[in-house]
Design goal:
Helix content: 25-40%
Distance between the termini: 39 Å
Structural class: alpha/beta
CATH class of the largest domain: Alpha Beta
CATH superfamily of the largest domain: Type I PLP-dependent aspartate aminotransferase-like (Major domain)
Bound molecules: pyridoxal-5'-phosphate
Strand content: 15-25%
Oligomer: single chain
Shape: globular
Strand order of the largest sheet: 3-4-5-6
Number of helices: 8
Order of helices and strands: EHEHEHEEEHHHEEHEEH
């Protein structure tokens, strides 16, 4: 079961492994439809939750995650963006053995090129996963880099703090723009609603700015970059909105 919209690969990968993705729509304000998830949990093998969610940036409250875990269904929490929210649900592993928390070094650590991450779960679940995982599935350099990055995480903390500052600026500046309705974000991107997503996306591209377009949706997602990049985006949006 996949509360959607979310990271599209959950659905794709589950199909690759002969799963049948059951997409459950998020509420209008992009919060979790907890009652629906709880009532359908018995029909699912895994509930896949991205927290904070991509592409909305919404951080789901711990009580809601607990309510889903209390059903006993296996919950996989993807915390790819948790560092930007200042909150992790790792502590829930002390109380639930039906939980898997996934972490990546691709986002806050800026190490996407090393293709490295890890998951944390009960010994029973890890033993089960070890039966089907490929031996030597991570290379030595990536493992070493991961160890070093986690041990020396001051660089990560500094860059997360800068991104949080820039996110604040970008969100505030977007709120001032006519026809742009940004959603408060706990991640390193901001989703915004607009009536002209395609026009805005294409006009930004012509100015050398690439943001995320979602076919058929009335919203766009931009990554929070450096302060200079955020200012450039706001200036470009101002110009585009004036001619829209
Ligand atoms: C929610 C989410 N999980 C995982 C990933 C990818 O992580 P990795 O680079 O470790 O495969 C992404 C990347 O876009 C993502 O948005």
């Amino acid at each position: 079961m996949i509360p959607s919209p979310t990271f599209s690969l959950y659905s794709t990968i589950s199909k690759v492994y002969s799963g049948v993705p059951l997409l459950v729509s998020l509420n209008k304000d992009f919060s979790l439809p907890v009652e629906k998830i709880v009532s359908e949990a018995k029909n699912s093998k895994i509930v896949m939750i991205c927290n904070p969610n991509n592409p909305t940036g919404v951080l789901y409250p711990e009580d809601e995650i607990k309510a889903i875990l209390d059903t006993g269904v296996l919950v996989v929490l993807d915390e790819a963006y948790s560092e930007f929210s200042g909150h992790s649900n790792l502590n829930l592993l002390n109380h639930y053995d039906n939980l898997i928390v996934m972490k990546t070094l691709s986002k806050a650590f800026g190490l996407a090129g090393f293709r490295t991450g890890y998951c944390v779960a009960s010994e029973t679940l890890i033993n089960s996963m070890s039966k089907v995982i490929l031996p030597y599935n991570l290379n030595l350099i990536s493992m070493k880099i991961m160890e070093l990055a986690i041990e020396n995480n001051n660089f990560m903390k500094d860059s997360v703090n800068k991104i949080k500052e820039n996110r604040k600026y970008l969100y505030g500046a977007m709120q001032q723009l006519n026809g742009i309705d940004p959603l408060a974000s706990s991640a390193n991107f901001i989703l915004f609603e607009t009536e002209n997503p395609k026009k805005i996306y294409e006009s930004l591209l012509k100015k050398g700015i690439l943001i995320r377009y979602f076919e058929g949706k009335n919203y766009l997602r931009t990554t929070v970059g450096t302060y200079e990049e955020c200012v450039r985006l706001i200036d470009a949006l101002k110009e585009i909105i004036n001619v829209c």
